């Protein structure tokens, strides 16, 4: 069992930055693929980024967002720069035991989400 707790969300003006953190429990953290997804009001949950041996981003955040992980702290981060109003959403951290990239159905564990609001 893996528990994920996100933090770092908030309200920021367009062009600003935020760093999201996701703290994971469990001693097998390093074996999981870790992903970030987001869901805006009235929209489906969408993939943002994932990290295991490789890193992948959705096109809309490439060059602005950076995913990273600290194995010693069992934590994965999402550094978000040059934020835009369309980045407003609840951001979720997720963990996958198996192969997983951008399909939310491939992820086994989810955090509770953290709200990110970008004002214009």
Describe this structure in words.
The chain is mostly beta strands and 120 residues long. It is built from no helices and eleven strands. Strands 2, 4, 5, 6, 9, 10 and 11 form a seven-stranded mixed beta sheet that branches. Strand 7 and strand 8 form a beta hairpin. The protein is globular, with a radius of gyration of 13 Å. The mean pLDDT is 95.
Shape: globular
- Residue-averaged pLDDT, rounded? 95
Beta-strand proportion: over 45%
End-to-end Cα distance, whole Å, is 40 Å
Largest sheet: 7 strands, mixed
Which structural class matches the secondary elements?
A: mainly beta
Task: List the keywords.
120 residues; globular; 7-stranded mixed β-sheet; 0% helix; 4-stranded antiparallel β-sheet; mainly beta; single chain
Topology:
Blueprint: E1 4-7, E2 10-13, E3 18-24, E4 33-39, E5 46-51, E6 55-57, E7 65-70, E8 75-80, E9 89-96, E10 109-110, E11 114-119
């Amino acid at each position: 069992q893996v528990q994920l707790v996100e933090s770092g969300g908030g309200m920021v003006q367009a062009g600003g930055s935020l760093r999201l953190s996701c703290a994971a429990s469990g001693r097998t953290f390093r074996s999981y693929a870790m992903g970030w997804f987001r869901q805006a009001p009235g929209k489906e949950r969408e993939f943002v980024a994932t990290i295991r041996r490789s890193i992948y981003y959705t096109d809309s955040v490439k060059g602005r967002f950076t995913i990273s992980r600290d194995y010693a702290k069992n934590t994965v981060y999402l550094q978000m720069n040059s934020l835009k109003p369309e980045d407003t959403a609840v951001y979720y951290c997720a963990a996958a035991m198996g192969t997983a990239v951008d399909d939310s159905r491939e992820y086994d564990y989810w955090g509770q989400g953290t709200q990110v609001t970008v004002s214009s």
